[in-house]
TrEMBL record:
Location within or outside the cell: Cytoplasm
The encoding gene: aroK
This protein's name: Shikimate kinase
Organism of this sequence: Effusibacillus lacus
Enzymatic class: transferase
Function: Catalyzes the specific phosphorylation of the 3-hydroxyl group of shikimic acid using ATP as a cosubstrate.
């Protein structure tokens, strides 16, 4: 059994997941960090040099690998839910926490960071709108759903830990 954090870019998956791993003692794996490590290049370079399709293959392959392990706290990339087989795999092998945030929070958070190729260059507002529309409904199939807008990370972690079915307490 693993724990998977899903959600759109900037909803706080990586940040909340790290804190949650520290509280539970489960092994933290951020899928983007793991893919970048294995590839020896950053996510934007993978997208620019090899394309999104290549990244999606890496992502699905890694997820498959992780599903055969146990007690992992996995933070996914926002696009992992695009493939139905990825959604099925997570559902079959873990407890799913879905994070969301309002658009202003997402914008503010992603503006403070680089490294998200799907949001780089051009009008940020339109890019977020288009992706949110494309992915509508894909983050809803989860054991817990939390809106992280205007909330402290420690607060969010406490709420997850307090869930009656949370597997790592
Ligand atoms: N609850 C929160 N409140 C304020 N800022 C946050 C919160 N969660 C994450 N952040 C910030 O937002 C940015 C994106 O967070 P990150 O964890 O990388 O999101 P994701 O992995 O979902 O894309 C980071 O700069 C992080 O520090
Ligand atoms: O939503 C997406 O398609 C992506 C989200 C990113 O992860 P975060 O959600 O952690 O930013 C990363 O996997 C890649 O840039 C693609
Ligand atoms: Mg992340």
């Amino acid at each position: 059994m693993n724990i998977y954090l899903i959600g759109f870019m900037g909803t706080g998956k990586t940040t909340v997941g790290m804190a949650l791993a520290a509280r539970t003692g489960w092994t933290f794996i951020d899928m983007d960090q793991e893919i970048a490590r294995r590839e020896g290049r950053a996510i934007p370079d993978i997208f620019a040099q090899s394309g999104e399709a290549y990244f999606r293959e890496m992502e699905s392959d890694l997820l498959k690998e992780l599903t055969s392990l146990d007690r992992l706290l996995v933070t996914t990339g926002g696009g992992v839910v695009l493939r139905p087989e990825n959604r099925d795999l997570m559902k079959q092998t873990g407890f799913i926490v879905s994070l969301s945030a309002d658009k202003e929070s997402i914008k503010r958070r992603v503006s403070n960071q680089t490294g998200r190729p799907l949001l780089s260059g051009g009008e940020l507002d339109q890019k977020i709108d288009r992706l949110l529309e494309e992915r509508k409904g894909l983050y809803e199939d989860a054991d817990i759903q939390i809106d992280t807008s205007a909330r402290d990370v420690s607060d969010i972690v406490d709420e997850i830990l307090a869930h009656p079915l949370f597997p790592a307490r």
